[in-house]
# Entry
Amino acid sequence: MSVDLATVKRVAKLARIAVTDDEASSLEGELNTILGFVEQLNEVDISGVEPMTSVIPMEMRKRKDAVTDGDKADDITANAPASEDNFFLVPKVVE
Amino acid sequence: MSIIDTRTPDPKRLIPGATGDWEIVIGMEVHAQVISESKLFSGASTEFGAEPNANVSLVDAAMPGMLPVINEECVKQAVRTGLGLKARINKKSVFDRKNYFYPDLPQGYQISQFKQPIVGEGEVVISVGPDRNGEFEDVEIGIERLHLEQDAGKSMHDQHPTMSYVDLNRSGVALMEIVSKPDLRSSDEAKAYLTKMRQILRYLGTCDGNMDEGSMRADVNVSVRKPGGDFGTRCEIKNVNSIRFVGQAIESEARRQIAIIEDGGSINQETRLFDPGRGETRSMRSKEEAHDYRYFPDPDLLPLEFDDAFVEDLAQHLPELPDEKKARLVSLGLSAYDASILVSEKPIADYFEQVAAGRDAKTAANWVINDLLGALNKAGLGIEETPVSPAQLGGIIDLIKSGDISGKIAKDVFEIVWHDGGDPADIVDERGMKQVTDAGAIEGEVDKVIAANPDKVEQAKAKPSLAGWFVGQVMKATQGKANPQAVQALVRAKLGIED
# Structure
């Protein structure tokens, strides 16, 4: 698998990362090197092997359904560039 | 993925176009907010209507380093819903990240389930009708899957000229996305499907189904085709928030698509919005930004796994569902129509069952449907606000059965209980409404009426139907308290009318 320049630009746009044309062409090379390296994994035959999701087999921890958090709107909005009455304010977005 | 067509084109459901009839094909995605105290992956409250950002934890605000921990009750609610939809429960499912940017999505991704949802294929039986003959038709609609995901926050656009307000209280609340197969073929079927889905969710207690507050929302996929032909290109109508609007959105969208195709055009696959004011749909997103959510398994969460015992335990404690309840009520002697009214909402069914306990089911059903629901409807009240309790209505029915009051007087007692409250038996006692069953007293009244009307007596001998007039006079004289059957028998005997 490899990526072309258009794909690099598209992925950057989807991730909302600003990439100049120069950066994009150097990224194209870098990404293809990484993908080529990862590609080697395909040499291993994994038919019939379950995907490994954890180094030690373990069950996902579950929480009891209880309210244990919240009521800290001031903390939540403390870092917001703009807020009012504990709402976040963002540049207007309307579909 | 190949789509299997489970339906045969039905002329009743087709809509006419300039080039002949068209068939509408509809699939639905219902987003149902899970009833739970706290959110899917955080301990913040799910309560509706809190102050802005009060029900937000650092997890919901996606602060760096915060890790999600799943709420066990939300998992149970999803499994219960799956069982209620007669669906396959997947003992292993996986959470994925669905990546997109929007100000009400602080993580930059929604934790959802993509390839391995918690619930697989199931089915819902909807009831469509009544048709011109008053008949209802049952149609089986396939369920494709149900998965758990996080809800997003809420944006408000009308508070400020250049800024949008964002409240994250809803961010992270558990949602069940329930996807149907494209088995629906008319707007009526789509409305019946949503109604039935809401009914099932409410019976299960897994979602309150309140579309006004947005705790149930529907995305509707609509395409048109020549009857029985290949599936057409579909458009998705997002976030329709009432059952009536779903019907309107489908009708207008189908007409829009037919007009385009009949003019020689083709349908663009796109997302559209329904504008209730204009009664039509409009394009929401342009096609150039085709969505690419770049799903991948969420590395913060292990696969969700449980065993058969977990599912079995939930299955055993599942409440009786509307279809089963309806079948049971029909087996008690109720008509299918009456039974479907009673099971339409769980609180109505519960009310009815309390009234019917130890009493004749048919009589109880008549009183609940005709008198109670009629009066509630007239007063604009819901069943929860009824001024007449099941015990009081049951008391009235008992008084009829014991012969203490006639059916007619019972209606008056119902009125009194409705307005003033009180125990029906006491009311009947205190207000002297008891039916006169004393044969001697009734006989006296009958004699009086006969003696006062010799001419009518002569006429009645030739025309037995006149007996009814005498009964009426006696009832009037006793202010309706005489037992009508007893009066009738006495009048006929005195006038010498053979039965």
